[in-house]
């Protein structure tokens, strides 16, 4: 696996790979790789001759400086995971390589970015869209892989790709969970033991919602109330949002017809966790 | 020359061209082609095996609906010029191909877009940046050619290309002028005979400024005053702006050191004309 820090060098290496007939898969990350990232890299490596993994903790998508500063970093571990899962190139640019002096341009994606995490974290998705656009332009992959855990991120990126006519396929990959169901996240390490054990209420609540739909409940208000009441059993849980939305537009829906996404963000202590599940009605 | 209306078809054709080892040059236009556009197409055709000319009157860059509606259209003439100058592909998408239902994403380039025409035409450069970004993503050219007459447009696009890491070279090509010096523009046909004869004061004033600098004048206030006074001799001329700016940032400079751009926008009747010249001090 080649480790590259400079955009020009990465472009040169990728041009050669493409000349040799290689297709390119891309997994953009903020490092602190876990089994979720590993599954994306593995899938890309299966589908492409060349897989690029990027590690860049993007300052512009953190709305709180403290959150950015304490974001977990573990370069050596990241390198090992990326290599083991079949990455060909690890791209680790410095901040000034990505945001040189005078950088100003930003991308506004519209309504899909304004609800849920977009409402709770002002500017977050503008930062996400900007960095992903830059990275897609640098790597020019055939496919880019993202984890379904960040469902709104995927919706924002798909919208941007469509609106800006980017020549790339965005592949959403299943959420990878801990043994007890908690969605893998780089932020899970911030949970203390009590918080960690209470956090398992999130996947439990999502599964309960799925069961309710299977049993015939359609009204989203009723489903959300049930989810909130379950999560309320945890003393530490502070709900940021529990919403049922259209998975493409991220706008709330009054009832589940066909597919709808149940998404939530809940704080345990200082750690904000997100999770989601697709609710589906088979007619 | 192939005429294409659909994005998917264009992509397919270009993929084949590239497979055959062709490099791609791109000349985006709003149609109403004149000798200025012709010079861009000619240059691209000289430098690339495949030249794409696009014709799309982009509604999102007009800040006045009436200006958009009356923008000159002459498809048959455009086709002939593009073909004669060596274009391989003429891309003429319909509005709903470029802006399908639900389109929302926009690009904000920052300060370079806020002065001069950006101040006079709110939202104009956001529209320009958005459509050029889309077209660059669709065509994926090696080089894209723009006329220096729209100097701020070039500065905005170069800034966007740099900030978003687009893999394309932006080539600025010299202003093409009528026999009497008036810069070629699709809008010149709106001038009546009196306006047309008075409009020649613009290139005259620009050349005078150049002479002043050659003669040792450096202070931009003095140069601008002289230009304004010359243009003031035309009874019909209504000055929108006369500015001397850094050619990359489009911010005003107090004196001419090295290179500076003298740019102006002046109305003759209902028609707004722009023109510019590079002022250069050789030390």
Task: Describe the overall structure.
Two copies of one chain form a homodimer. With 283 residues, chain A is an alpha/beta fold. Chain A folds into two domains: 172 residues, HUPs (Rossmann fold, 3-Layer(aba) Sandwich); 90 residues, 2-Layer Sandwich (Pantoate--beta-alanine Ligase, Chain: A,domain 2). Chain A has eleven helices and ten strands. In chain A, strands 1-4-3-2-6-7 form a six-stranded parallel beta sheet, with helices on both faces. In chain A, strands 8-9-10 form a three-stranded antiparallel beta sheet. In chain A, β6, α8 and β7 form a beta-alpha-beta unit. In chain A, α7 packs across α8 and α10 runs antiparallel to α11. The longest helix of chain A is centred in the middle third of the chain and has 16 residues. The mean pLDDT of chain A is 96. At the A-B interface, β5, α7 and α8 of A face β5, α7 and α8 of B.
Quick one: how many beta strands of chain A? 10
How do the helices and strands follow one another from N- to C-terminus of chain A? EHEHEHHEHEHHEHEHHHEEE
Quaternary organisation? homodimer
> CATH first level of the largest domain in chain A: which class?
Alpha Beta
Biggest interface goes to: A-B, 25 and 25 residues
The CATH architecture name of the largest domain in chain A reads 3-Layer(aba) Sandwich
State the end-to-end distance of chain A.
48 Å
Kindly state the percentage of residues in helix of chain A. Answer: 25-40%
Shape of chain A: globular
Provide the number of structural domains of chain A: 2
Average residue-wise pLDDT of chain A: 96
Per CATH, what is the topology of the largest domain in chain A? Rossmann fold
| Spatial arrangement of strands, main beta sheet of chain A | 1-4-3-2-6-7
User: How many helical elements of chain A?
Assistant: 11
Per DSSP, what share of the residues of chain A sits in E-state strands of 2 or more residues? Answer: 15-25%
Uncertain ranges of chain A: none
Rg calculated over all Cα atoms of chain A: 19 Å
Largest sheet of chain A: 6 strands, parallel
Q: CATH superfamily assignment of the largest domain in chain A?
A: HUPs
Helix and strand composition category of chain A: alpha/beta
């Amino acid at each position: 696996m080649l480790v590259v820090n400079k955009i020009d060098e990465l472009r040169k290496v990728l041009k050669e790979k493409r000349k040799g007939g290689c297709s390119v898969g891309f997994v953009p990350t903020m490092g602190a790789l876990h089994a979720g990232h590993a599954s994306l890299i593995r899938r890309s490596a299966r589908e492409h001759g060349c897989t690029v993994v990027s590690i860049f903790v993007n300052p512009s998508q953190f709305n709180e400086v403290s959150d950015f500063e304490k974001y977990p970093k573990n370069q050596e571990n990241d390198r090992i995971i990326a290599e083991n899962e079949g990455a060909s190139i690890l791209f680790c640019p410095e901040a000034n390589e990505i945001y040189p002096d005078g950088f100003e341009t930003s991308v506004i994606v519209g309504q899909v970015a304004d609800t849920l995490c977009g409402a709770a974290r002002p500017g977050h998705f503008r930062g996400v869209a900007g960095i992903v656009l830059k990275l897609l332009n640098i790597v020019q992959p055939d496919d880019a892989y993202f984890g379904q855990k960040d469902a709104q991120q995927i919706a924002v990126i798909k919208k941007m790709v469509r609106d800006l006519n980017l020549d790339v396929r965005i592949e959403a990959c299943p959420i990878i969970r801990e043994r007890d169901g908690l969605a893998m996240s780089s932020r899970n390490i911030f949970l203390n033991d009590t918080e960690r054990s209470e956090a398992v209420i999130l996947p439990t609540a999502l599964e309960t919602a799925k069961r309710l739909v299977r049993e015939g409940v359609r009204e989203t208000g009723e489903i959300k109330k049930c989810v909130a009441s379950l999560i309320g059993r945890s003393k530490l849980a502070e709900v940021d949002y529990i919403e049922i939305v259209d998975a493409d537009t991220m706008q709330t829906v009054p009832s589940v017809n066909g597919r709808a996404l149940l998404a939530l963000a809940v704080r345990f202590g200082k750690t904000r966790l997100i999770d989601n599940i697709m609710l589906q009605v088979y007619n």
